[in-house]
């Protein structure tokens, strides 16, 4: 099985997008900025296999669909479970 591999360069000769096997990959830093994360966290998600990505040299390129799926699966906002102080019943006098 062969996979198609294409590189798209942005002005300034920086790699802005890579297509691997038909899947669009963006630099980890670009994905991080777009979604409110830091580059190192996105790279860690790739290393841990939580999102699909490919390391080329020192840079991670993240599968955009895989990352979108990861973000949709995250829960944001305050926890709905009671805090420890709320779950402890107070003695009545």
Described by the principal axes of the CA atoms, the overall outline is: elongated
Overall pLDDT: 79
Regions with little confidence, pLDDT below 50 for 5+ residues: 77-83
Q: What name is given to the CATH topology?
A: Arc Repressor Mutant, subunit A
Largest sheet: 5 strands, antiparallel
What percent of residues are in strands? 25-35%
Total domain modules:
1
The H/E string reads EEEHHEEHH
Sequence of strands across the biggest β-sheet: 1-2-3-5-4
Count the E strands. Answer: 5
Radius of gyration: 20 Å
Structural class: alpha+beta
Overall CATH architecture: Orthogonal Bundle
CATH class type: Mainly Alpha
Distance between the termini: 75 Å
Number of helical elements: 4
In helices, the fraction of residues equals 25-40%
